[in-house]
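Review box. Two proteins, two foldings.
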Amino acid sequence: MSITYKQAAGAAFALVGATATATWNIRNDRLEELDSIVNSYEAAESWKVPETIAKLDKSVEYLNSELGLIAENQKYKEEIDELMAQVSELSETVSMKNNQISALEDKVAEQEQFVNEFFPIQKNLF
């Protein structure tokens, strides 16, 4: 099988055409990428990147402090729950002690009455 000059020239032109088309497409893609980068830089200048970053940093600091406060509040809520349980226990103890005091006062009153029956107190002795 032999290749003629026409076939070789046609293949060479086809190869050159395909290479040129591929190069052109790659170049266009790169130009679009560079154009996109330039546009983003221009947009960045219009919304003042350094100021925006500073504001974002302040926002992050504020949010971190708020998260710290939330964690601290949670800790205090747990502590309050524990203290409320202790208050409940102490209230029960106080109630029990008050009942014991009442019972003892009743006993003292009975004994006082018993003593007064045998040894009446005379008023106005002088």
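Next protein.
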Amino acid sequence: MRLDKFISQNANLSRSLAKKAISSGQVSVNALCIKNPAFKVSANDKILYLDKQIANLGYRYLMLNKPAGYICSTKDDIYPSVLNLIDIEKHDSLRIVGRLDVDTTGLVLITDDGQWSHRISSPKTNCQKTYQVDLAESIATETIEIFAEGLLLKNEIKPTLPAKLVIQSKNRVLLSIQEGRYHQVKRMFAAVGNHVVTLHRLSIGKVILDTQLNKGTWRHLTADEVSYFSLN
């Protein structure tokens, strides 16, 4: 990791202030004054800022069981952010991965590792997300084939990627999709004449929402869960 990034993340400084601190000789690595912000450091290095050792918090990876009524962004004039539910040090550096609408519940991933986040959210990865969907009308069995073939949503010119639909009861289904288009799940069911009543995300890739998490609570991901989206 670059030294300026390490200082910014672990000393509560902006990136520009971290660079100034390094350039002015306020930072040492293993007892050597380093003035190059791009200097590479590792977890084993002893890094001092203003003669005080900086603890390496490392990247944080969390899962949250999102309740309804919260938004997946940092600020809003009406609804509170899901980050308000996270009581953790250096809370402001966390970012939300795999956003949900304000009325949608379930699995949200939160991290300060930008590359890890990108591997989940990038359209190129086709990361599968599975939702439990309660519908206003009984689901027609032919919807399974329609979704599997891909369908054209209103005001779009490209059909959706194939999606897997599993019928659990006449009004409840599991839907697995590989995209993250605007209000995609709701629009897919609207396209076949149905209406989503409740929407709950169960999984992102191989990471499954912990059934022990009550709504509004969170936990750190396990090493295995983190590795699902890490480069080999």
